[in-house]
């Protein structure tokens, strides 16, 4: 603490003085503190913030996605609409706790033998096993051959981060290619884990669809062994997924170049309403016998957002390698958060292990996906009904929680100011945040915004 090199250069002389006071305070026992010296607490808290050892800290901007909700919450308008948040809302605009989740929680509460002991570093073993089956399929050869190691992590974000930290330590290539555009947190997660982030072409603004040629060209010129981040389904923010034929072409290119696929599966079941259908891309890359990583999240598909339940699976060449990889994953996790929380993973395991509950979940999941699809149809019709210029068919062609409207940041700002509609500045709207009553308001706002730009 006495080392002055620990004080940032921008720190004022006052900050230096505070550190000296702190150091002297720590060096001396309370009994021999000079009674004329102001108390440490008083000296650290008095005066302007120039007296703080943190006075040099600049205010950080809000997260571009979470900041939308903060702005929405401050708006007193009764017609305000939040389409920025990536969370499901009912037709009444309310957050939803699935009935099957409530039943699972009741079971857990009523089970008197349950305790709150620490989980192992790798999490709840049964949850890990069931999560791997959910994404890779019941009959996955990789699971049968014990080539998969799965660790419970803190939702999708935590799974991506643990995977990235592992790669930065143990994989020879440090470059990861992420799609352009992608979920805003991806570049931060990978950069802070120590990987070097590059982008590959993904979206074509003219067709509002996939730029498959650009994607193949960019991955074709990536260095051998580079890591490639792929959205397993329901690409965020564009809602544009490759077709199965395009996935097959991508797979062949990735395997022929020896690139390493890292799947982000945050929406299994949300895209099509079917868990197996939405896992097809991942399964193609596993049945070919090759290696890959998969980050799974239960935030959206089980509505467990705040419980932070997810899993990282690494599919390895042999069972022996998988076991060594797991031992190293523990070394990544232990100093980060020691071990994951027990409650959310117990909910998931309770549902996945019980046939009735599992079936009920698939029905709930399909209902959520179908409501989102029906909102796409309603919005498309409302825009057409207003005769708004342009081809809006991408709204019904895109898939999953989000529509990438094509509205620019000026139009978005206009819609927020004049219509109290909140979304990210790239024009992404959450279809899950819409309902039959709010569709006309959004269509009116888009109409006015498009006129503005015409
Ligand atoms: C593409 C993608 N990946 C990962 C996540 C992470 O979600 P969570 O950490 O809440 O599971 C999200 C959430 O919006 C996402 O859209």
TrEMBL record:
<dbReference type="GO" id="GO:0030170">
    <property type="term" value="F:pyridoxal phosphate binding"/>
</dbReference>
<keyword id="KW-0663">Pyridoxal phosphate</keyword>
<dbReference type="GO" id="GO:0006520">
    <property type="term" value="P:amino acid metabolic process"/>
</dbReference>
<dbReference type="InterPro" id="IPR004839">
    <property type="entry name" value="Aminotransferase_I/II_large"/>
</dbReference>
<dbReference type="InterPro" id="IPR015424">
    <property type="entry name" value="PyrdxlP-dep_Trfase"/>
</dbReference>
<dbReference type="Pfam" id="PF00155">
    <property type="entry name" value="Aminotran_1_2"/>
</dbReference>
<dbReference type="InterPro" id="IPR000796">
    <property type="entry name" value="Asp_trans"/>
</dbReference>
<keyword id="KW-0808">Transferase</keyword>
<keyword id="KW-0032">Aminotransferase</keyword>
<dbReference type="InterPro" id="IPR015421">
    <property type="entry name" value="PyrdxlP-dep_Trfase_major"/>
</dbReference>
<feature type="domain" description="Aminotransferase class I/classII large">
    <location>
        <begin position="80"/>
        <end position="446"/>
    </location>
</feature>
<comment type="similarity">
    <text>Belongs to the class-I pyridoxal-phosphate-dependent aminotransferase family.</text>
</comment>
<protein>
    <recommendedName>
        <fullName>Aspartate aminotransferase</fullName>
        <ecNumber>2.6.1.1</ecNumber>
    </recommendedName>
</protein>
<comment type="subunit">
    <text>Homodimer.</text>
</comment>
<dbReference type="InterPro" id="IPR004838">
    <property type="entry name" value="NHTrfase_class1_PyrdxlP-BS"/>
</dbReference>
<dbReference type="InterPro" id="IPR015422">
    <property type="entry name" value="PyrdxlP-dep_Trfase_small"/>
</dbReference>
<dbReference type="GO" id="GO:0005739">
    <property type="term" value="C:mitochondrion"/>
</dbReference>
<dbReference type="GO" id="GO:0004069">
    <property type="term" value="F:L-aspartate:2-oxoglutarate aminotransferase activity"/>
</dbReference>
């Amino acid at each position: 603490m006495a080392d002055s090199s620990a004080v940032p250069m921008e720190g004022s002389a006052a900050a230096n003085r505070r550190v000296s006071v702190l150091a002297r305070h720590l060096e001396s026992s309370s009994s021999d503190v000079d009674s004329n010296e102001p108390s440490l607490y008083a000296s650290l808290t008095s005066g302007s913030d120039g007296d703080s050892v943190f006075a040099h800290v600049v205010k950080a901007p809000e997260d571009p996605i979470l900041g939308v909700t903060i702005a929405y919450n401050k708006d007193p308008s009764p017609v305000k609409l939040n389409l920025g948040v990536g969370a499901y809302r009912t037709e009444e605009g309310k957050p939803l706790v699935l009935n099957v989740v409530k039943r699972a929680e009741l079971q857990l509460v009523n089970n008197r033998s349950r305790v709150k002991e620490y989980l192992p570093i790798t999490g709840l073993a049964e949850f890990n096993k069931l999560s791997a089956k959910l994404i890779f399929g019941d009959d996955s050869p990789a699971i049968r051959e014990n080539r998969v190691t799965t660790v419970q992590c803190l939702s999708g974000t935590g799974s991506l981060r643990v995977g990235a930290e592992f790669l930065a330590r143990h994989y020879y290539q440090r470059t990861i290619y992420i799609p352009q555009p992608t979920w805003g947190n991806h570049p931060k997660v990978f950069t802070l884990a120590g990987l070097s982030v590059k982008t590959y072409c993904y979206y074509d603004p003219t067709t509002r669809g996939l730029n498959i040629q650009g994607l193949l060209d960019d991955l074709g010129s990536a260095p051998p062994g580079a890591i490639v981040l792929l959205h397993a389904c329901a690409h965020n923010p564009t809602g544009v997924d490759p077709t199965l034929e395009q996935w097959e072409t991508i797979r062949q290119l990735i395997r022929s170049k020896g690139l390493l696929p890292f799947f982000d599966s945050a929406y299994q079941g949300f895209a099509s309403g079917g868990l197996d259908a939405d896992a097809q891309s991942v399964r193609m890359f596993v049945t070919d016998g090759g290696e890959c990583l998969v980050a799974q999240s239960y935030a959206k598909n089980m509505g467990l957002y705040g419980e932070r339940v997810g899993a990282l699976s690494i599919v390895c060449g042999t069972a022996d390698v998988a076991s060594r990889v797991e031992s190293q994953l523990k070394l990544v996790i232990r100093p980060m958060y020691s071990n994951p929380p027990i409650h959310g993973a117990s909910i998931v395991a309770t549902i996945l292990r019980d046939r009735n509950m599992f079936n009920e979940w698939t029905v709930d999941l399909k209902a959520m996906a179908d409501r989102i699809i029906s909102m796409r149809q309603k919005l498309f019709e409302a825009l057409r009904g207003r005769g708004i210029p342009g081809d809006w068919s991408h709204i019904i062609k895109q898939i999953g929680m989000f529509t990438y409207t094509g509205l620019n940041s000026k139009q978005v700002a206009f819609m927020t100011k004049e219509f109290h509609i909140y979304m990210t500045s790239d024009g992404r709207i959450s279809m899950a945040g819409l309902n039959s009553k709010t569709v006309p308001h959004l269509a009116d706002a888009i109409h006015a915004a498009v006129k503005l730009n015409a």
